[in-house]
């Protein structure tokens, strides 16, 4: 269900030897924060001779306001530049590090054509509605976000349009110096207040303020960037090594296309059992954060940086490696027997999900429904509020699969109620649960296990 996840850029493999060739599409700025020439859509683009081997006429070039030096990877035809639209989202601005073709494709998103979509969305720089939270120093964590008023489950807490979008192919195919140069220009081209907010974010690297060293921009991005599985229909053939922890299987499956920075959301600290979750809206190019349960004033608002349904040792290792801190959230500091219990529950969750997800299984003798109720109980015990809808959905399917209609409807309704704030009204699993709740007998899962049993008996 998840489409986005915080991802570590800091794990970038060092010492690669893929020399790139610097190309400028005009005069090169003399300092990192100097203005670059306006060169996109450039003459080659307008004349239809794109460098990317793509179709120059479609999508139509967007009127990007700025550009920068471009770099071509020795490994591919791709030429990466910075594309900035300073007018985006009511003058907040956005910068992309990508190819001309992909930049122009991204610019077909409704966020560029319908200003209503992003109006008042970003409340960090221009505040038009009273906030129910504030950014504060949190002992041992740097800055963080704390509730200043009650926030009910499902309420929108924060939203940001993307400030910087970085193409994974640039990250994986350009030499570090060129990639860093592009990142620096991407930040430098944003309007001043936006740029200042971004440069004020935390970084793994020790830095001066304002940062003068381009490496600091990389540090800021490495610490704060989210991974976006961008919904794009242009052909993306990326064969990348994400340099992952062997336990990060979900990453290998997702092959994200862009990494994105959302400065206000980047202030949220991690907890393994967070009280909020984030999701990306492709139309608005915006990330939003909603309360996963009721939050009381004074409580820190947290999200999980990782898939937290795994044992403590794996979580601790991943957080240390990715974000450089020792996890001391409530779950990570459980003592002795309780820690062991929590790890065992996490193991059991994986096991039960595996069995229930197998639609060839017959689940005779109430075994499937028993496991489904166990799963809901385990999610509650583990306080997995951000993903409760997943447990409810599996339970709904299981009860429907043995013809227990009313219990199926109950869990489907719960899945919809908990799913909407976390994954959105239009999410396909939410939609599936809505269909099940409305017409259990007409749903694909109806009597599915019973049919398996009948088939076995023949
Ligand atoms: C995305 S930033 C979060 C906001 C950051 N604390 C700030 O001051 O802007 C990620 C960084 O915050 C810190 N951090 C986040 N969650 C933490 C936690 N649970 N415990 C300690 N440090 C944490 C780490 O330094 C991490 O690299």
Automatic annotation (TrEMBL):
InterPro entries: SET_dom (IPR001214), SET_dom_sf (IPR046341), SET_domain_protein (IPR053185). Residues 131-306 form the SET domain. SMART domains: SET. Pfam families: SET (PF00856). Gene3D superfamilies: SET domain (2.170.270.10). PANTHER family: SET DOMAIN-CONTAINING PROTEIN, SET DOMAIN-CONTAINING PROTEIN 5. This is SET domain-containing protein. It comes from Trichocladium antarcticum.
């Amino acid at each position: 269900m998840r489409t986005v996840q915080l991802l570590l850029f800091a794990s970038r493999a060092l010492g690669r030897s893929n020399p790139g060739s610097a190309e400028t599409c005009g005069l090169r700025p003399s300092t990192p924060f100097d203005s670059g020439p306006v060169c996109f859509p450039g003459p080659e683009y307008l004349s239809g001779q794109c460098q990317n081997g793509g179709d120059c006429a479609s999508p139509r070039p967007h009127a990007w306001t700025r550009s920068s030096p471009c770099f071509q990877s020795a490994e591919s035809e791709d030429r990466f530049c910075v594309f900035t639209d300073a007018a985006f989202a009511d003058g907040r601005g956005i910068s992309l590090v990508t190819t001309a073709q992909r930049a122009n494709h991204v610019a077909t998103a409704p966020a560029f054509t319908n200003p209503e979509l992003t109006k008042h969305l970003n409340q960090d720089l221009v505040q038009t509605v009273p906030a129910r939270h504030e950014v504060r120093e949190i002992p041992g964590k740097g800055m963080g976000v704390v509730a200043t008023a009650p926030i009910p489950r499902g309420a929108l807490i924060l939203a940001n349009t993307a400030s910087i979008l970085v193409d994974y192919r640039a990250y994986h195919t350009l030499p570090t110096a060129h990639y860093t140069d592009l990142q620096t220009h991407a930040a430098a081209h944003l309007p001043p207040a936006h740029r200042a907010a971004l440069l004020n974010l935390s970084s793994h690297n020790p830095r001066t303020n304002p940062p003068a060293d381009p490496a600091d921009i990389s540090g800021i991005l490495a610490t704060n960037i989210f991974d976006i599985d961008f919904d794009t229909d242009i052909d993306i053939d990326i064969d990348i090594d994400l340099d992952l922890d062997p336990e990060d299987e979900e990453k290998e499956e997702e092959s994200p296309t862009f990494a994105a920075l959302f400065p206000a959301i980047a202030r949220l600290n991690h907890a393994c059992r967070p009280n909020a979750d984030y999701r990306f809206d492709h139309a608005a190019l915006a990330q939003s954060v909603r309360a996963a349960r009721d939050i009381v004033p004074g409580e820190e608002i947290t999200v999980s940086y990782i898939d937290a349904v795994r044992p403590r040792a794996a979580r601790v290792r991943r957080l240390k490696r990715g974000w450089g801190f020792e996890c001391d959230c409530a779950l990570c500091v459980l003592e002795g027997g309780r820690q062991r219990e929590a790890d065992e529950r996490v193991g059991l969750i994986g096991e039960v999900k595996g069995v229930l997800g197998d639609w060839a299984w017959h689940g005779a003798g109430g075994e499937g429904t028993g496991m489904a109720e166990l799963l809901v109980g385990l999610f509650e015990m583990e306080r997995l509020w951000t993903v409760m809808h997943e447990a409810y959905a599996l339970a709904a399917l299981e009860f429907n699969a043995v013809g227990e209609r009313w219990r199926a409807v109950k869990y489907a309704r719960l899945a919809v109620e908990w799913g909407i704030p976390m994954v959105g009204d239009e999410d396909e699993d939410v939609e599936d649960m809505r269909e099940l709740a409305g017409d259990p007998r007409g749903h694909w899962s109806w009597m599915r296990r019973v049919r398996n049993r009948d088939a076995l008996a023949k």
